[in-house]
Every structure is written in structure tokens, then in C-alpha cells.
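assembly run, all chains below
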Amino acid sequence: MTLVLKGVMQSPVTPLKDDFSPDYETFERLVDFHVRTGATAISWPHHKAESHNLTIAERKKLAEAAINAVNKRVPISIHVSALALEDTFELARHAQESGADAIIAITPYFWKYPPEAIYDYFVKLGTSIELPLIAYNSPSYLDGIEFTGEITARLIQRLPNFIGMKEASFNSEKFLEILRAAQPLRPQFAMIAGVEYLLPSVSLGGSGSYSSAGAICPNLCVELYESCVAGEWDRARAAQYKLSELWLLFRDQYPSSLKGGCVIMGRPVGPTRPPLPTASPERVKFIEKRLIELGIVDSEPHGW
Amino acid sequence: MSDFKFGLVHAPLTPFADDRIDYDTYGKTIDFHLRNGAEGLALPMHAGESVSLTAEERKALAEFAITRVGARAPVIVNVSEAGTAIASSLAEHARKAGAAALICSVPYYWTPPQHMLVEHFAAVGQAGGLPFFVLNSPAEFSGVEFASKSVVELLGKLPHFVGLIDMSLDWQYMIEVLTVARAARPDFQLVSGNEYLISAAAIGATGLLSPLASISPQLVRRLYDLCRAENYKAARAPQEDAAILFRLFRDAGPAGLKAAAKALGRNCGPPRDPLPALTDTAMRALEAEICRIQSVNSEPHGWI
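ok done. output:
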């Protein structure tokens, strides 16, 4: 288990054609764009990739396409969470057979269950494969279902392949609770912030983040991570505040607005599958205005 | 309009004897804080059982503290109340008594909508006429948060609204508030309302309101100084100790703080009803937990 996660890792959106079918050509181009513009790893399909709106067959086929497009230049993890756990286990097996470097999985969706069920689930998932496993904690989207430091520690002791956590509570207490439990047991354990909240997480001992806006502003993502690691906090604050404004812009009906922003940057990725709306021309205009105000259009690559 | 800088502010306990405020011991408590790193005092906060004091007691307490402190440090008076008129009368009294600034939370109990919060703060702030800090603590107030757009609205109505004390620990919220507030008032202050300081400081918090200073004033001072110097790596060790203490006392509340203070040679009496004092068993368990924290053993013992 030598995979060490750090830096700004990109999780591409899923480009779609006008008839909402997967656009493989653009998908490969997007993955390649992320790798060329500084992604330290690729992870797909996070929720912003409309994981829930894809069939299991589509997820497998697109996962293979992503793994091929990355072509071993950086590590790639596959997000395997599905509503039915049977599908999750199937996607995990498939990721391993297809040559992924890791899998990532959130606590099971929808149901209310006791904390012990989280432990049992991840043991079952982690022992079903040999790949490294990244857990994903997101209490605000899952009605308060969350990891504790205690569960994290026990899972580390049980699973040699449990290497990191995407911790998306955006909360100092939760982030530090898990980090304190994990790192004494596994010093390389990666605490990864959700979205680019690197300023408050790297200062606290975090390793990096998955990215929200990487398809829009890869340079700014790299700038934020590097200034945090260098301890140049004024520089980091400037970059973080700008990225947080972008998150507020894209968070609404995520990832519809994000896909709308890609149009402005010359990297169109098509519509968003219902029930999510596709960004209207007015919305795209508004996003363009904000991207210009924030200096993104002038400082980031245009086109592929 | 105001040069008031929050800095490192301690939140003292309120000692009781025979169910009356024990001013003798309160005087010693105040001196203890001023000798042990406080740049200011905020009183009575929840740690000082503000909610269990009558309005008359709160006024008398403020007068006593301001006289006792004299020119040694600023005294910030907490005027949080359920009713706007009662809070306003506390605010007016605090100014006449010589307070340096005011703290006000959202009203107790009512869970008002945002426009009512703005009106409440504007009225109390105007009655006080002192530098005014809003205390944001959604977990203690049924989820009521002072929204960033309301921060901007209040800035338009209340010129001496100079800062926000955050207890949400929420990275998204803190960055959002500073982004919009500093656009309207560049010197707007973010203060961390509990000892999870690293992430808040990286985000831009310049002050700390510390309830744990009753137990670990040196630890809090070290954490504060390292964070102000933006030496977050070195701040990790004191941050972790503070996190353990924070957990302990969130469950135990003022009763726990009083029990621990007594164990450290500073008997402030029992908490006032309805809070029960810790049972002997709970007290011994708490003492054992505290003694396992290395740094606590080097904290001052007694009223030195």
C-alpha cells in the first residue's frame, strides 16, 4: 500500500451529448486536461460527476475510459458508492479488475443506522478487494450520518488498505477528531478536504483536497495548495477566498453551474441529466460575469 | 469608528456561595485571569452561567468586574437575552458602567427569522453605543445562524458592529462572512468563540474568546500566540490538548469547569440550579481524564 494522496486531486464531471448520452471523446479530453494542468490524482465519479444519474453499466464503461485516459500518469481512484450496496461491491470489483489504483466510498445512502453499521460496511467493502480504500464522510448531505474518530481508528486497525478519508464536514472539530484518531496509527493516512477548503485543512494537518472548480481554474487550485504547503498564508488566503466565491457560485444546483462555467472557459461538457437542470443561457451569462470579475477568465487556460 | 481589538479574551466562571454571587471569590477569579494571559475579560458568558443570573445580578456583576479590573484590561459585557428591551437595558447599563465592548447572541428561545435578528441586534447595539460583537453559535440556539447576508445588512444599520464571534467551527460560513463583511468594513474582526483556533486563524480570525482559560490558561496562551504567528505546525500540539478539553467540557458544561477549577485549587462553589453539581464519581472520572493531558499538569494551581 504505497499510494500516498496529497495535493489538489481532480474529480472530472461527466460530459454528456445533447441527447444526454455519455460523451466519451470529451471525457477523455477532460481527464487529460486535468492531468496536464496539475492534478495530483484523478477520482471519478464523485457526485459532481452525476454518479447517481448514471446506470451501473455506464459507470463501469466510463471508469474504464477514465483509467485508460489517465494512462498511469497519476493515480486514479473510482468512486463506487451506489444506493444499493450490491452495486457498490460490484463496482469495487470492477474497479480492481480494470486497473484502478484505489476506490473511494461514502457511508451508505438514505438509511438511518447505528455507528456500528458504518464499521461493518467498510470492513466488508475493504476486505472484498485488494485495492487501497478511501472513505468519504459527508454528514451534511447524509442527515448527520458520520464517521467518528473511534470508528476510523478501528477500521485502520482492521484494514491494512484503508489509506485516507475525504472529510467533507468543513468543520474544524470533526476534521481534527478523525485526524487525531488516524495519524498515530497510520502516519501516512491522508485527510482530504472536500472542495478546495485547503487553507483551514492543510493548516490543521490535512493532505490535500478533491477539487470542485478544477475544470474552471486549475492554476488557482495549484496556487492555493502550494502557498499552503509553503506556509505563505497571505497568498493562501487570497487564493482561498477566491475559490470559496467560486464554490458559492457552483454549489447551487451542483454541478449544473459548473458545467455552465466550462462553456465560458472554452471546454464545453454538455448538459446535466435531470432531475438536475442544465444551466440556462441567462445563468451562463451570470457565471461569465462572475468569472470575469474574479479574474478567472484572464488567468486560467481557455480551451483544451 | 472603533479601535477596539478583541485579542485573547477569557470567559471567567461565576462563583456562588449560598446561591448568591460570591464576590470575594469572583475578585480572585478576575485577578487570576489577568495574571495568566488574558488581554481582556468577557462576562458573564455561558461558562459564567449568564442564563442563570437575573438582569439585576448581571448589572451588579458587570459593575463589580469593571471596577476590579480597572485599567488593567478591557471588560466586554455579554448582553445576550431573549427580549430586545431587556438586552438593550443591559447594553445601556454596560456602557454607563464603563465596559469596552458588547457581545450579543441571537435571542434565546424564539428562533427568529433573519430580519428579526437584524432588528434585534441593531436595537441592542444602538442602545449600547459600544463596539458590538455578534455571537454566532447555531448548535446552542436550535440551529439559528446569523447569515452572511444579515451580517452585511447589520453593518449598514449599526456603524459600531465591528466583529463576529463564531462558534459554528464551519469553514464555509467563516470564509463567507469575512468575504462579505470585509467588503463593507475592511477592519471587520472574526473571533473564534472556542479553542479550535488553527483553521479559524488561517481563515483570518484575529481574536479568541476562551472558556477553557479557567482550566488551562497557559495552553490557551500558547495556542493563541502560535496561531497569531501563523506557526500552525507548532500549534498542532496545544490544539490537540485543547480539543480534548473542549470535548470534556462540552459534555460537562459549567458544572464540569467548576469541578475542574476546584481540583486545581480554585473553588468557585457549585453551579446554580437547574445545573446539578457533578457527582463524586463523575468528578473523579473528570479529574482522571484531565490529569491524562500532559499540559494540564503544568498549569497554575490555586489563585496564583
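The first strand of chain B starts at residue 8 and ends at 10.

Chain B touches chain A at residues 169-172, 174-176, 178-179, 196, 198-204, 230, 232, 236, 239-240, 243, 246 (CB under 8 Å).

not gonna interpret more than that til we talk
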